[in-house]
Amino acid sequence: MSNFYNIGLDRNPANYQPLTPLGFLERTASNYPDSVAIVHGDMKITYQTFYDRSRQLASQLANLGLGRGDTVSAMLANTPAMLECHYGVPMAGSVLHSINTRLEAATIAYQLDHAEAKVLIVDQEFLPVAEGALQLAERSPIVIVYCDPVWVEETKETANTTYQDYEAFLSQGDKSFRWLMPEDEWDAISINYTSGTTGNPKGVVCHHRGAYLLALGNVFTADMPKYSTYLWTLPMFHCNGWCFPWTISAICGTHVCLRLVRAEPIWHALTEHKVTHLCGAPIVMDIILSEQTQRLAHKVAFFTAAAPPPESTLAKMQQAGFEVTHLYGLAEVYGPAVVNEWHDEWDELPIQEQAKLKARQGVRYLPLEALDVMNPETMEPVPADGKTIGEVMFRGNVVMKGYFKNLTATESAFAGGWFHSGDLAVKYPDGYIQLKDRSKDIIISGGENISSFEIEDVLYKHPAIAVAAVVACPHEKWGEVPFAFVECCESQTVSEQELKAWCSDHMAGFKVPKHFAFTTIPRTPTGKIQKFQLREQVKSGKA
């Protein structure tokens, strides 16, 4: 029998357009052109100006010959330029590659080469590291330097004259540039590199559809009304700022840029700009509380990920006027895709019980079709008993396209029709999940992923080291920090200070182990290191 609902009712430009978050900015600029979109220092940028500058950036990239599928790398702080890149780059049809500003030159060089970057937009503060990366890289992208006026005022630095200036570059652009919609909502909008457990970092490719849905999912999850004010305590390079660069435009909100996450400017922004929402790792809460002298005059929603904050921190945040919500996700699901949705009746529970509930990762975001804890061997859900451990798996439109130029890793991640997170968890009777371990040995420190294998590789290169194993160590401030166990070569010795200096010379500072133990490392009969024993030693304090 014919399905008449499919006859003569085909897609056409009038009834079908690919989903993309780029239209959020166009819509808000058209309807609220004079509303403040961005606050940065003494600057206030309206939505019309924000939209104009994004189109100027897009037109200039097009003038350089960039188009669909070309990569533009951005190594920027939380500044207006980074927000403009989130619109201007994909408006040219190109793909935005946001670089972690804390990385070392070698890793940046790898990313520039692997992503085939054609343009690098870099903050002048990070130019020395970027130049080091360019010397190591095989590619030679066009370099455009952004000289942040707030940074200039604080440091009294003079503007760079070696490379093309970002403002001069934009000034030549066309404000009325007819920017490109994606040809398909499956087209890539961004690539973000995530630490792997072995080898080089993997490039997570996200599409316009997922960015659109996750951005709107943030509105529902964060309960964000129109004209909300968002403070940028979360790095925009991290999973595209959890898609909030696009979310805020959808609600005609205001971005309050914050170049450095420090207590004084945070509290100033909270009161001066009536901030309503902010995000960050638990370390951000510690920074906020370090100079907390009064209770907020209005309720502020704080969304945190990574390790759950200590009970004492939650209590202090609540007393200061913050409403803390725990999120969970990965770069592969556009940032947060799981939320610890709070039930009103839980407010009546003792603070200790509330802390236990807040430590759970929660339930799926509205735009995520499925979330479960499953046995990776049988692909069957584990019992919802709060005890049986399985792997967290995702399915839906806010899951990545896959890993860039890495078919093997992509197929492995999507085995059985689910995205395998590699995180181990339990599931409770009410459907909430809680992480218990990480099968990939990833250490989450201050919200940043650190590969234990990367640290071990650096340690093995030291002439005095025979065996090295790195595990996560709980830390009150950072959530987790690397703890290194080492065995020295026969007749060789090395001090903890020497190893820290060695690591500092070969990797980013936040990856350097905070603790070292010189001991015999347990192995199986076949020589495999038994990391679970090392974790137990750290947990029990025997290390």
TrEMBL record:
It comes from the Bacteria. InterPro entries: AMP-bd_C, AMP-bd_C_sf, AMP-binding_CS, AMP-dep_synth/lig_dom, ANL_N_sf. It is an enzyme of class 6 (ligase). Residues 25-404 form the AMP-dependent synthetase/ligase domain. Keywords: Fatty acid metabolism, Ligase, Lipid metabolism. GO terms for molecular function: long-chain fatty acid-CoA ligase activity. Residues 454-528 form the AMP-binding enzyme C-terminal domain. Its EC number is 6.2.1.3. Belongs to the ATP-dependent AMP-binding enzyme family. This is Long-chain-fatty-acid--CoA ligase. It comes from Grimontia celer.
